[in-house]
Amino acid sequence: MLEKISSALGGLPIPAVVALLALLATQLSLQLYCLYDLSRRLSVPGGKKWRWVLLIVVGNLVGAILYLALGRSAPLAVSDRSPSRSADDRQRALDRIYSDKKP
Questions:
Q1: Residue 29 lies in a domain
Q2: Rounded to an integer, what is the distance from CA 15 to the centroid of its chain?
Q3: Per-residue confidence (pLDDT) for residue 80, from 0 to 100
Q4: Is the distance from CB of 74 to CB of 45 less than 8 angstroms?
């Protein structure tokens, strides 16, 4: 199979074909991750999500890296955040763990 791809690419050496396929898989997975992450954000720098979608899709690997570096400064949607406990809950838990009183 690699020989067929190599001959289709003008006789490119097999290691170069493997590297090219690895780069392609990395690019595609990174783009999909960035699009998924973008869909979970409430807002993005610049205010328009479609601009980031366009940059990620058209910009290929560079666009996805730019999104990861610059576009992720906005918070995630509230429902996607991990649940947090109140200060009272934390204090009660610490008191139970480190209390001198025996139950």
A1: yes
A2: 28
A3: 47
A4: yes
Q: Which domain holds residue 29?
A: 2-98
What's the structural domain count of the chain?
Answer: 1
Domain presence at residue 103: no
Q: Which two tokens stand for residue 33?
A: 């991750």
pTM of the complete model: 0.65
First to last CA, the chain: 69
Check residue 86 and give its pLDDT.
76
Q: Is residue 87 part of a domain?
A: yes
Beta bridge partners of 76: 41
List, for residues 45-85, the tens digit of each pLDDT value: 888 899 999 999 999 999 999 999 988 876 666 554 455 66
How far apart, in whole angstroms, are the C-alpha atoms of residue 18 and residue 101?
65
